[in-house]
Write a structure and sequence with these properties.
Peroxisomal Thiolase, Chain A, domain 1, 11 helices, binds acetyl coenzyme *A
């Protein structure tokens, strides 16, 4: 086997839409209350794109910050992965639109669809190319604009999601640092717990698909809740074991921001203190594949991490997919 070098996150960036939608704004749209949303989900407001903001636009803005902080010129980027389930359009990929705007002319570019786990999948895929020496670096972006595909008549889903983007640059780091272990999982048997039936090649847009509201997210919230609490705990433990660590060795957990009750449950089961578990769901809701890189970028900006801190990143999402990574900062 080729020699395996350490790969780590050398910079981060994020971009959020300007528009804020509060719980009281939602009270005007569906039968809900600020109180219900806050206590059942932990969300107070979310950012929603306007007509002149796009998925690729947010991705570009987040990526520009990450590139600048890495002091990497666009033409030096080897690989661009955009993890998203909400590309601007079916063809071409969001990553090619982003590639053009960033002018990363020497980068291979592709989209990766793994629901809310997309960013962790993307990091794991990119890491392989750098580790085996094929590429020198990668720009991995987690971005989703779920608001256009959320059914604003369905209170079960429309209160949960927000739009946003986060980006990281991955590159070789000194031995013993960076990504120590990662694992990706999937179970397509549970595809119908969270899906959008219309708009693909099976049910392309037609009058009847629009009438049946097939272009909107359908979700079985309670079943996902049960699945999420189990996999957050199990996959965190799994990746820790892969590098001979235990939850007691962790400095910080960065969990997918879907529901504060899911996060708190997982944190308790892992025996973590409140301050070790990073949370921003109250301000952004569930931003799908952007959730972890946004959390990461905010934490970096706040100077939360010290050199050598042990971090676990863990997520779950449509597919179903789930996964986790452990990294030494
Ligand atoms: N406002 C008021 N009442 C509501 C709302 C709302 N926004 N939404 C649901 N309710 C009602 C329900 O209709 C139900 O009423 P009923 O008892 O009269 O039928 C009641 O509240 C309880 O509903 P539950 O679904 O049992 O509520 P629960 O406590 O499970 O919370 C929630 C629902 C928040 C959706 C929760 O199940 C959850 O967070 N699940 C995980 C969802 C998730 O993470 N999805 C995304 C994962 S993948 C990704 O990130 C893309």
């Amino acid at each position: 086997m080729a020699s395996r070098g350490a790969v780590g996150i050398i910079s981060t960036g994020r971009a959020l839409p300007v528009g804020r939608v509060s719980n009281s704004d939602l009270e005007e749209i569906v039968e809900t209350s600020d109180q219900w949303i806050k206590t059942r989900t932990g969300i107070e407001e979310r950012r929603i794109i306007s007509n002149d903001e796009t998925c690729s636009g947010l991705a570009v803005a987040a990526a520009e910050k990450a590139l600048e902080r890495a002091a990497l010129k666009p033409e030096e980027v080897d690989l661009l992965i955009v993890a998203t389930v909400t590309p601007d359009q079916p063809l071409p990929s969001a990553s090619c639109l982003v590639q053009a705007r960033l002018n990363t002319i020497n980068a291979a570019a592709f989209d990766l669809a793994a629901g809310c786990t997309g960013f962790l999948y993307g990091m794991n895929v990119a890491e392989q190319f750098i580790k085996n020496g094929t590429l020198k670096n990668a720009l991995v972006i987690g971005v989703d604009t779920l608001s256009p595909i959320v059914d604003w008549q369905d209170r079960n889903t429309c209160v949960l999601f927000g739009d946003g983007a986060g980006a990281v640059v991955l590159a070789p780091v000194e031995d013993g640092r960076g990504l120590l272990a990662s694992k990706m999982f999937s179970d397509g048997h549970k595809a119908e717990l969270l899906y959008v039936p219309g708009g693909g090649s099976r049910f392309p847009a037609a009058q009847w698909t629009i009438k049946e509201r097939l272009h909107y997210i359908k979700m079985n919230g309670p079943e996902i809740f049960k699945f999420a609490v189990t996999v957050l705990v199990d996959s965190t433990r799994h990746v820790l074991e892969m590098c001979n660590k235990t939850p007691g060795d962790l400095d910080f957990l960065l969990p997918h921001q879907a529901n504060i009750r899911i996060i708190n449950f997982a944190a308790r089961r892992l025996g973590l203190k409140r301050e070790q578990v990073l949370v921003n769901i109250l301000r952004y809701g569930n931003t799908s594949s952007a959730s972890i890189p946004i959390l990461l970028d905010e934490a970096v900006e706040q100077g939360k991490f010290n050199e050598g801190d042990l971090l676990a990143l863990v997520s779950f999402g449509a597919g179903l997919t789930w996964g986790a990574s452990v990294l030494k900062w």
